[in-house]
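Internal tracking record. Fields below are filled automatically when a chain is submitted to the structure queue. Please do not edit lines marked as system-generated. If the sequence contains nonstandard residues, flag them in the REMARKS field before resubmitting.
Queue: standard
Priority: normal
Entity type: single polypeptide chain
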Amino acid sequence: MPMRWTAPQWLILAGTAGCGASARGEMPVISQAEVSPADASIGMIEGCPARGPTPGGSWQSVGLPEDFSARANPSVVVAGDAIAVLGGFSERTVVLDNWLLDTRTSRWSRLASGGFTAQSRSLVVVWMPEVREIFVWSNIEHRGTRMALDGTSRELSSEGAPVTVVRHAVSVAGSVFAAASTTLGDHDEFALYDPRTDRWEPVLAPREQTSRGNYSLVATDRAAIVWGGIDAVSDPQRPRNDGWRFDLPTRTWSSVSQRNAPAPRSTHAAWWIGDSMLVWSGQDRAGVLQSGGRYFVGPDAWLAMDGRGAPDPGVTSGTYAFSTAWTGSDLLVWALTPDGRADAGRYVAREDRWAEIEPPPDARRRRESSTVWVDCGLYVVGGRDVMRWEFTREVLRWSP
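SYSTEM-GENERATED OUTPUT FOLLOWS
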């Protein structure tokens, strides 16, 4: 449920257009005059029990089945009260075992293989809450499957599915919105999958939109927002700070305002946080960006984020590794430096400020890991050593 806040005075709603909490005027107070001092104590993560013995939280290892494979880049998704771990790669070989962790009982069970083979290196995974199944699309084999939590699976219909590479997919308004693109076309390809009918519906891209890579895709309660990335056609590698919003009930596109938007970027993190889209970090041609913003749908307006105290990536140019998770009230970020050190932080959205938290104890072994938040715990799955091809089997849980 979105938190109920009062809108900043400058953020005036324009009519009643929009969706979700932002359309109802439930905006957060992010006025610098009201932000607590940086050294003030910070409250608990909403909905979680009292703080443990250390202010930065604590890490513990999660027990694993004997045949759970070491892996990097696994696809990890929250499925109700459980975590699904699918695929990944290890020692230059694709990992084929898939697992489900019930976070309430700490019990693991096997998921179906989905029928994918050793060539299935690229999976796009989405939880479909309406049917309680996991949508899995393989870009290598160009087909998909639906995985049930009882370990069974069935193949997706392919008629009308995207013909190019699916970059992202999200669950929105009972459907899966898939965004696909290549470097060959003028526009990206979009499509909707309805899990109740097992049918695809192609979605025509907005006329002004150009094909791009490394963009973000988030879902509101009724719309999908595509934002940022790099231009793939007219000026390859040029970062963008424009975007579009697709409203499912009306099947219409509208542009995202660029006024006061964060600087152009790609490979950034983006989350829908109940009342707005939060964008953080990424990079441009000059290097790593330690900035972000929040986009409110109703007024089509941006609000800048305070970057002071955010985790330090340890680099000013080139790519770097960072992981993010949204708790329902806070953004958790930890950045892995090129030499294997880690810096972690917690962005408290209601106060627009950062607090330091404890990074993973074995961060050096966590390059290309996957991170999710569920049941008041941050789970970090897999990864590999920063400097060598040594893969991580251990799953860690951080508690506030």
